[in-house]
Amino acid sequence: MEKLIATRDAFGEVLVELGERYENLVVLTADLAESTRTYKFANRFPNRFFNIGIAEQNMMGIAAGLASCGKIVVASSFAIFASGRAWEQVRYSICHSYLNVKIVATHGGISVGEDGSSHQAAEDISLMRTIPGMRVLVPADAAETKKAVEVAVETEGPFYIRLGRPKVPLIFEDELPFQLGKGYKLTEGSDVTIFACGIMLSQALEAEKNLRKEGIRSQVINMSTIKPIDRQIIIEAAKTTGAIVTAEEHQVIGGLGSAVSEVLSENIPTPLERVGLRDRFGESGKPQKLFEKYGLTAGHIEEAVKKVLRRK
Amino acid sequence: MDKVTELKIKANQLRQDVIEMTAEAGSGHPGGSLSSADIVACLYFDVLRHDPKDPKWPDRDRFVLSKGHACPVLYSALARCGYFPVEELKTLRKIGSRLQGHPDNRKTPGVEICSGSLGQGISTAVGMALAGKMDKKNFRVYTLIGDGEIEEGEVWEAAMSASHYKLDNLCAILDYNGLQIDGPIKKVMSPEPIKEKWLAFGWYVIEVDGHNIPEILNAFSQAKEIKGKPSIIIAHTVKGKGVSFMENVVGFHGKAPTKEEAKKALKELREEVKQWKS
């Protein structure tokens, strides 16, 4: 049985470790200390934790003000509110001022489940990616989450890190090749490349296994950094496999699929299929059921691979 | 010369700069810059502890122009304090200039943070005041907000949090000139009763004539003494103050005077200052 850990749990843990290391690390949340797991930091460092209440716009402004006075600020809420409700505060107060604020958003995507579409952020990567200077990370598992948060805290300037609600398989138990701005290959294959991020990485790996049984060799590349996008690895993948599939728990408009297709179109036009939400809102339901209904399973990736291979 | 007269002369200088800058730029927001000139003069030439030679001095008082469209008056104050050459004021709003249409900390020395998307500045000021409290620093944080600006919900989120955290190192000044772009605030979307709202949000409220220097200075000293809660100075002002044909004219909110109008305005302002200089 594979090990399951929610990325938000890993976030809660690494935050405490980073709190020990960085005296000027301050954590904010907007009435979601429990859900975002920032309560762990709050318990350990009560004087460096502020619960701003249900006021995400003000939270981002306060984050900017604290950062302008030399604090490293982690501001945490659900992805829909962090990226949507407070978008303009993130754009202007934080990114335009270029301040040291790390937005760590939990509950990304439709895997939020039963709460339904109001709380399912499927547009956040797009919203954050378009802001100049913003770095966007979507780690795939607990280990990568810890590393991503650590790198964000160590690196000057604004970050958006998107995490999920449910428990997800631990992929990187032994070694973790995570580097800011770099994608990395997890399987070798010359027929097709599958770029995936977040919760979709494990689906991509499952698809790769199933496809191999049918004689299709795919290289799965983890694109945990959506911005700055790793152009080199995309161009290289296009050259070596000539067919690309992207998989993300996000609208196909504006997210990983768009980022990859931008690089391809500008450099090396290559057949591409995007797996993600196809311009639709989610709904209430169990995450697995939603993934089936909205086209986000390994099976859907396999279909996309076969489709793109026909276009090769 | 006494301090009050000196500050009056400074405020007059800021007003002249505002007229010259906006006329030269051919755009900008003179109305709200003129209404807040006396407040800004008191802050930069008396109240604020700051060092133009060391804009990043960690213990400096912070000023956030939440009503960022009034930046001509801020830039004038910064230049007259020595943050950058007065000559540079002419570059306002021009391509490549350090003086943007709204304040930008990455371009202009002395500007603390980007502001002017209304409602955002006061939140950032709350963050700065919170940082001061965390670090047990003595610096104070000032933020100038517009009366139209308080129609923004974020202002009240910020107001709630400032009193929740007992930020007595934070002092807001409300430029209550009664006009916003589309007309009188009471007609567009009345934020009244303003004083009662701030009281209800847990702030200490002081009301002054925003063009009366002794009253303004007195309010700032009073605010410093208040413990356990943030203060707001509700400054009753006149939009376009100091230039007869611009006073209370809503059109001058976001429209620059023409070259002709500027000449006339400058003449009035130079006349006014003579009486204090003599």
What is the topology?
The complex is a heterodimer of chains A (312) and B (278).
Chain A: E1 4-6, H1 7-21, E2 25-29, H2 33-36, H3 39-44, E3 49-51, H4 56-68, E4 72-78, H5 79-85, H6 87-96, E5 101-106, H7 124-129, E6 135-137, H8 142-154, E7 159-162, E8 167-169, E9 184-185, E10 192-196, H9 200-213, E11 218-222, E12 225-227, H10 231-241, E13 244-251, H11 256-267, E14 272-277, H12 287-293, H13 298-311
Parallel strand pairs in A: 2-3, 2-4, 4-5, 5-7, 6-7, 10-11, 10-13, 13-14
Antiparallel strand pairs in A: 1-8, 6-12, 9-11
Helix pairs in contact in A: 1-8, 4-6, 9-13, 10-11
Chain B: H1 3-25, H2 30-35, H3 37-47, E1 62-65, H4 71-81, H5 120-134, E2 141-146, H6 153-164, E3 170-176, E4 179-180, E5 183-184, H7 185-189, H8 194-200, E6 204-209, H9 213-225, E7 231-236, H10 259-277
Parallel strand pairs in B: 1-2, 2-3, 3-7, 6-7
Antiparallel strand pairs in B: 4-5
Pfam family, one (chain A): Transketolase_C
Keywords (chain A): Thiamine pyrophosphate
Family (chain A): Belongs to the transketolase family.
Number of helices of chain B: 10
Share of helical residues of chain A: 40-55%
Beta strand count of chain A: 14
The interface involving the most residues is between: A-B, 29 and 32 residues
SSE order of chain B, one letter for each helix or strand: HHHEHHEHEEEHHEHEH
The largest pleated sheet of chain A is described as:
7 strands, mixed
* Overall tally of domains of chain A: 2
Amino- and carboxy-terminal Cα gap of chain B: 10 Å
- Secondary structural class of chain B: alpha/beta
**CATH class wording of the largest domain in chain A:** Alpha Beta
Q: Pick out the low-confidence regions of chain B.
A: none
CATH C-level category of chain B: Alpha Beta
Number of domains of chain B: 1
Q: How many E strands of chain B?
A: 7
CATH topology title of chain B: Rossmann fold
The CATH homologous superfamily of the largest domain in chain A corresponds to Thiamin diphosphate (ThDP)-binding fold, Pyr/PP domains
Tell me the strand order in the biggest sheet of chain A: 3-2-4-5-7-6-12
Structural class of chain A: alpha/beta
User: What fraction strand of chain A?
Assistant: 15-25%
